[in-house]
Amino acid sequence: MSYSKEAVTRTLAGEGIAIVNGAEVKVCKGADYPEGKLDPWLMEILKRKNKLDEKGDSPGADIAALTGVDIGKLISGEEDPAQLMLVLRHLQEKVNLNADNEDSINLCEGEIEVTYEDRVFYRNTNRLWRYQRTNMDTQKAHPCYIHFHGGGWFTGSPQGRDNMLKYIAEKSDAVIFDFDYSLAPEHRFPEAFNECYEVIKYIYDHAQQFRIDPKRIAVGGGSAGANLTAGLTLRAKHEGRNELIALQILINPPLLWTDDHPDGFIWSINQFPVTEGENPFWKTNGSRHGLGLALNGSELYGQRATK
């Protein structure tokens, strides 16, 4: 997305409404937080997710009962790493930080129709959600966006209430699909990947039924969804099916699982100061890297990375 000079000027000034690619964007200047401090709204949600009060009431209080696995042994590698995925999935379900949750804000001015169908894609039955304007003109073909959610390939389950997708459907007058693909560790690579590819082909083949233009199908997602999108686009290219995808939208995509970096590349978590007590995640296992880097993610997902 490119921003106009007007949008940039208003952003710097911290005022008013800017028009960005046809969408109204409310511009407001953030508070001057001390270095290392998070936005209060986000911090409150993180506290909810990590709360441990005198009663022992916390997101992870019943993890042992739920999984029968000792978290300490998970971290140390004594237990099956796949069990950690189940633990983290349970934690994620306690507080959902994406647009498909009750705390997100619906910016739509009109009504958005939300429907779904359960179908077999590849070899599993999964749910495919569809968002479109209630008053959409059914006599013409509309653009289409197929969304694949994030969550590290092992969390996330669309519920048909994603306000971001509703907003896109309204402002773009497009038909939006959101696919609930199968998750690891129960379903390892390439199950989700193959399912998503089948979804793209299904929507393309039924373009007339869905009132979409098969030449204007965009595919995208964030994080794990972006990774899937990149792989699916390459697969379509390699199979000579370039017509399936007109555009790919990659949001914070993990594309390279390796310790190799381009010359001159420098990145360290220590470049981002965190105030003492501000973010419990950094203190997990006595490390600022937290749980996410305690294990080899390629092994958890089921596809070992190679250089």
Structural description of this entry:
- The protein has 307 residues and is α/β, with parallel strands linked by helices.
- It has helices at residues 5-13, 40-50, 63-67, 71-76, 81-94, 163-172, 191-205, 207-210, 224-238, 297-301; strands at 17-20, 23-26, 112-121, 124-133, 142-148, 175-180, 212-222, 247-251.
- The strands form two sheets. The protein has a six-stranded mixed sheet with strand order 3-4-6-5-7-8, sandwiched between helices. Strands 1-2 form a two-stranded antiparallel sheet.
- Helix 9 (224-238) links the parallel strand 7 (212-222) and strand 8.
- Helix 7 crosses helix 9 (224-238).
- The two termini are 32 Å apart.
Mean pLDDT: 75
Order of strands in the sheet with the most strands?
Answer: 3-4-6-5-7-8
| Discrete helix count | 10
Query: Which percent range describes the beta-strand content?
Result: 15-25%
The major beta sheet can be summarized as: 6 strands, mixed
Count of DSSP E strands?
8
General shape: globular
Q: Name the poorly predicted regions.
A: 52-62, 281-307
The helix fraction, in percent, is 25-40%
Using only C-alpha atoms, the radius of gyration works out to 21 Å
Q: Could you state the order of secondary-structure elements as H and E?
A: HEEHHHHEEEHEHHEHEH
First-residue to last-residue Cα separation: 32 Å
- Report the structural category: alpha/beta
